[in-house]
Design goal:
The complex is a heterodimer.
Chain A (H helix, E strand, L loop, with lengths): L6 H22 L4 H6 L1 H11 L14 E4 L5 H10 L40 H14 L7 E6 L6 H12 L5 E7 L2 E2 L2 E2 H4 L5 H7 L3 E6 L3 H18 L3 E6 L22 H11 L7
Parallel strand pairs in A: 1-2, 2-3, 3-7, 6-7
Antiparallel strand pairs in A: 4-5
Helix pairs in contact in A: 1-3, 1-4, 1-10, 3-4, 3-9, 5-6
Chain B lengths: L3 E3 L2 H12 L4 E5 L3 H4 L1 H7 L4 E3 L4 H13 L3 E4 L3 H7 L1 H9 L5 E3 L20 H6 L5 E3 L4 H13 L4 E3 L5 E3 L14 E4 L4 E5 L3 H14 L4 E5 L2 E3 L3 H11 L2 E8 L4 H12 L4 E6 L9 H7 L4 H14 L2
Parallel strand pairs in B: 2-3, 2-4, 4-5, 5-7, 6-7, 10-11, 10-13, 13-14
Antiparallel strand pairs in B: 1-8, 6-12, 9-11
Helix pairs in contact in B: 1-3, 1-8, 4-6, 9-13, 10-11
Classes of the chains: A alpha/beta, B alpha/beta.
């Protein structure tokens, strides 16, 4: 089983993952930095503290499952998998290239540790529900399925079909997480297609909604780590709505929709890596 | 006329048999369990049956998750919704990852009848056939349907089994074994090949009888697997006859007719005529009236056969 990290170690993991994200996207020349950086602390907390997982046993039945519904944030998942030992870090430099195990969007057939192939938005929560059902049928009571969604992604109708399904079928082993960075490709979510109160919407669908600072490792560890127990206690699934900043950690990317799907040039990459205190081992 | 049963009647009953045999079957339905007959499975295995409500995308997505979790996941609903409404889920979630999801929607084609064009799916074979890794089966009777569902359950990866609402004559013997990728030669002939599938197989046989009365020897194939298609059997038949007609309760674009055209075009070019729905939507009516209206009768197949033979050099 993977080692459980301290708060400081988890913060360091998140910082290192951000270095990986910038480096691999710069090398790839295309991809999605904004939504990868906004989710870095969430994913670092999951892989560093919250989830039971073992890079040596990717088919361990009792492992927790992670489903990246916002599949375009693949770099944050690849960084977490590389940093926790699922594959050699050298692979990060092959992102999006022909023959790479690291596809533009997560591919369960190619990447060790990727549980589900995603990429077309809105589909991860239904898949997570199915996984949760399969675990229940098999009597595997320990594992939790953590599903990370983007806020813009919540505009997809299937999300709400799945949101209706989970409480109806008593899926307390599925935890939804929303990376609520407020931005999508065409601009602010409030301007493109306003989502309203995300937590209230999930509550109306029968979920327990927990709000959390998506960049506070200790708050994330408490909210995500306690979600399953809370769900069991209330008999309803839990969603953790995380307030985040798109592009978090790189000053010139923060809060700008423009950095959703644009990669930094050489000069910008150097600035970003310096800001993050990267030691260069990732390049 | 022999016993008549709809292919959909085989669905729920076969799922129960498979589960009884210990196959790790689960079913996700979208509020049509009585029509599709998955209610039979729900009654026998209530903890393995999940209703997604009127939400076909969710039905496919949930089934995909169950498949990731190691289950053999069958889905219900009608052909028009399971393929059209949920196409992206079938493509990006099921087929892209090669998941063990088996789509067996019912109410395909125009024999849906009075519900009309909105519910008469004649593009589903085309939509499913183009997806990498998807196997497409179109059983001709209830026995073939049961056997096809069994093949889908026991063969890894995505499957599309096309089932119908209307009762059709039983063609195959009890205990029929469905061989994936095989076209069945139901009647041997030398003058023209009639390649059919689904509810059109009985009409192809009737057309062969009409042609026989005129001294024309027609060979009838049941192309029960549209993908992977049985190239060898089709090529052998057309090599012998030199002319071919396809007959399907589907658009003439993208379905059996197109698949056969690809096979003979590359291997044994010969005159081809396609009997099917001619690039139009369906309409309300009695199923048998509709078969006449859209030109899907034995008489239509026989006419097409004469045309194909006349075009032969």
């Amino acid at each position: 089983m993977g080692q459980i990290l301290t708060s400081d170690e988890t913060r360091e993991l998140a910082r290192q993952m951000r270095c990986d994200i910038i480096s691999m996207l710069a090398e790839a020349g295309s991809g999605h930095p904004g939504g990868s950086l906004s989710a870095a602390d969430i994913v670092a907390t999951l892989y560093g503290v919250v989830m039971k997982h073992d890079p040596e046993r990717t088919d361990w039945p009792e492992r927790d499952r992670f489903v990246l519904s916002k599949g375009h944030a693949a770099p944050v998942l690849y960084a977490a998998l590389a940093e926790t030992g699922y594959f050699e870090r050298e692979h990060l430099g092959t992102l999006r290239k022909l023959g790479s195990i690291l596809q533009g969007h997560p591919d369960m057939k190619k990447t060790p540790g990727v549980e589900v192939s995603t990429g077309s938005l809105g589909q991860g929560l239904a898949i997570s529900n199915g996984l949760g059902l399969a675990l229940k049928i098999d009597g595997e009571t320990a594992p939790t399925v953590f599903c990370l969604l983007g806020d813009g992604e919540l505009q997809e109708g299937e999300v709400w079909e799945a949101a209706m399904f989970a409480p109806h079928h008593g899926l307390t082993n599925v935890v939804a997480i929303v990376d609520n960075n407020g931005l999508q490709i065409d601009g602010a979510c409030t301007e493109v297609m306003c989502l309203g109160e995300i937590a209230l919407k999930f509550q109306a669908f029968g979920w327990v909604a927990v709000q959390c600072d998506g960049h506070d490792i200790d708050a994330l560890a408490a909210a995500l780590g306690g979600a399953r127990k809370r769900a069991e206690a209330e008999g309803r699934p839990v969603v953790v709505v995380c307030s985040t900043v798109k592009g978090k950690g790189v000053s010139f990317m923060e809060g700008l929709a423009d950095w959703h799907g644009k990669t930094p040039n050489a000069e910008q990459t150097a600035v970003a890596l310096a800001e993050l205190g990267c030691d260069g081992k990732e390049s | 006329m022999s016993d008549k049963r709809a292919t959909r009647e085989a669905f729920g009953a076969t799922l129960v048999e498979l589960a009884n045999e210990g196959i790790d079957v689960v079913v996700v339905e979208a509020d049509l369990s009585k029509s599709t007959t998955t209610a039979t499975f729900e009654k026998a295995y209530p903890t393995r049956f999940f209703n997604a409500g009127i939400a076909e995308q969710n039905m496919i997505g949930t089934a995909a998750g169950l498949a990731v979790g190691g289950k053999v996941a069958f889905t219900g609903s009608f052909a028009v919704f399971a393929t059209g409404r949920a196409y992206d889920q079938v493509r990006n979630t099921v087929c892209y990852a090669g998941l063990n999801v088996k789509l067996c929607p019912t109410h395909s084609g125009i024999t849906v009848g009075p519900d009309g064009g909105s519910h008469q799916m004649v593009e589903d074979i085309a939509l499913m056939r183009v997806l990498p890794g998807m196997r497409v089966l179109v059983p001709a009777d209830a026995r073939a349907a049961a056997a096809a569902i069994r093949v889908a359950a026991t063969t890894p990866g995505p499957f599309y089994v096309r089932l119908g609402r209307a009762a059709v004559p039983v063609i195959y013997d009890e205990g029929f074994t469905f061989e994936l990728g095989r076209a069945y030669v139901l009647r041997e002939g030398t003058d023209v090949t009639i390649a059919s599938c689904g509810v059109m197989v009985e009409r192809a046989l009737a057309a062969a009888a009409l042609l026989a009365a005129e001294g024309v020897s027609a060979e009838v194939l049941d192309v029960a697997t549209i993908k992977p298609i049985d190239v060898a059997t089709i090529v052998a038949s057309v090599t012998k006859t030199g002319a071919i007609v396809t007959a399907e309760e589907h658009s003439i674009i993208g379905g059996l007719g197109s698949a056969v055209a690809e096979v003979i075009g590359e291997n044994v070019p010969a005159p081809l005529r396609r009997v099917g729905v001619k690039d139009v939507f369906g309409t309300s009516g009695d199923p048998e009236e509709l078969m006449v209206h859209y030109g899907l009768t034995a008489t239509d197949i026989a006419s097409a056969a004469r045309e194909a033979m006349a075009a032969r050099r």
